[in-house]
Amino acid sequence: MQERRGNRKTWMNLVICVLGVPLVILAGSTGWLRHRFDGNGGWSGRHGDLLEAAGRIFFLFLAASVGILIFSRLRDRLSRETADPEPPADPDVAWLQDLQKSAASRITEDDRKAIAMFVELIVDPARRRSRLTETIDLDERAVVQHVSISFSLPHTDNGGRVLYVPVVQPRKGELVDNFHLRNARGDSLPTMSYEESVRLASAGLRLLIEISGSEQDAPAHRTLGEAERAAELALLQIVATRGPMNSQVVDRKMDVILERIKFRDDESRRRVRKYVAALSSSYPIIAVVPAAEATSGRLLLKYERTFVPSSLTRGWRGLLRLGLGLKPDQVAVPVELALTAESYHLRVNAPSNKYVLKQFLQCRHCRTLTTRKWRGMQPRGMKDEDDKQGLCAHKVGPAVEVDHHFRVRRRRGQNFVHVYMRGYAKASPKMRDLQVFARFKEVPPGGRGRAAVTALATTLLIAVAGNLISSRQGAQVGGLPALMLALPAVAAGWFGMASDKDALVGGSLLARLSLIISGVVSVIAVIYYLGSPPPAPLPPGSVVDHLTFVGITDWRWIVLCAISALNLIYVSYRFTLKLVHYSDLLKREDLGAGEFAWR
What we know:
By secondary structure, the protein is α+β, with helices and mostly antiparallel strands. The protein contains 15 helices and 14 strands. The protein folds into four domains: 2-79; 93-303, no CATH class; 309-442, no CATH class; 446-537 and 544-587, no CATH class. Helix 12 (446-470) packs antiparallel against helix 15 (555-587). The longest helix is centred in the last third of the chain and has 33 residues, at 555-587. The chain crosses the membrane at residues 12-33, 53-71, 451-469, 475-497, 509-530, 555-573.
């Protein structure tokens, strides 16, 4: 079916191209219509050129319309996904019943405490995650994320041989690229497969239901009633469903299912709901850690993964940067991991030849800067002047009710952004969709310095060549002057290619445009120099004889020299401004008691 549809679209595009070629030929040809009116008298014979021009414009318009049609069809074809998204797949009932049996037998073994710890890390991860450090490296084309998590766990005496620690919870259907999990010593740790994770999740659900329906805090193993088993099977179906489920559908299903279970209090009901809701939308990557590594109550795990970021470039400026081969100069990093730990550190590392120009902690939707008076809330779904999409999850609350804090590292010419957040995991509801927005620039001299040097050389050489052309003795056509005029174009092309090809961020749009202007002006100057005849003598007493621009009298060379000079002045001004600003950043003092200095 897909192949037949693709062949049909290919033939359609071919037919459109066949129709467009004659239109282009008619729009570009001359004389095919005018000669028909030359033999006629009257108005048409006198205005044959005008009629032909109108006809050519008409066919040019039709050809452009056909071109836009082909472009839009091909763009739509390239943008379409190769595979249609599949709906969530319900698991087999027999397999769910087998999960029930294995869960009932598993929690009677010696890993009961380990399963209880797994449930707690799913329901309330911030309670055991004391510190989380996230580092983002932007040196490659993709984003490399390094995360270090410090757990504060209860003593594991007689708590089983291993611990089941959910490290990261990607959404169902999301592929995790280049994932590596290590302990504090740097040794690799094993993780559970999909089926092992589902069986562990089913055991955790059985333990939660047993505890929730008992009057004791830590009851012994008990047998569930028929209604509870039916409710457990329905909840297992939500957990084991392949693919992400709609959160509203999950909530409606759980409203009905949880009525069949007798909970001892509202907190028990909330824990079961939160546990199932978390596993309905994500597949936790579970580390299997020897219990001996957490005998002191502390556990440190590290993992890294690779992200392919989406582009922030929009409009003509983004297309221009992309067309000129420039990398983005800004990046947005979500801080969702701050909602899973007591304290959170984020560091975004740019290449060493970049420095931080701007940095903001803001809402992803309304772009408003975050303040310490913000509180979390459920998105209203109503659009207003600030919240264009109705998705913001923050509001301003009384200072006495706010128990969180953040701090952003001051800009001092460094190539990294450092953000510290504390207490955001305890807020209810969560303050979601916050992000760190950073913009980087090249450390001087960088691209602007190279562009300024190229513009200076172009301006001087054009001024010299213009004076040679304007001299009364004439100029030696060809030779060394023409070769010297071509050097700025070669330099502009070389400096343009010598950029950070392997960096995710970098490149100056102004510098690239300045190099292009210098190269184009140099090429035009070579053409003029090789094709310019000796200057004709001016009549005696001519006023033009006294009008010159840096000794140049030919208006074409005056225009070229003026364009190059304006390019030089502007890029030099922007380079100087950038240099002074970077120097001011380096002179800033830190807020700490001590201060490192260099000279």
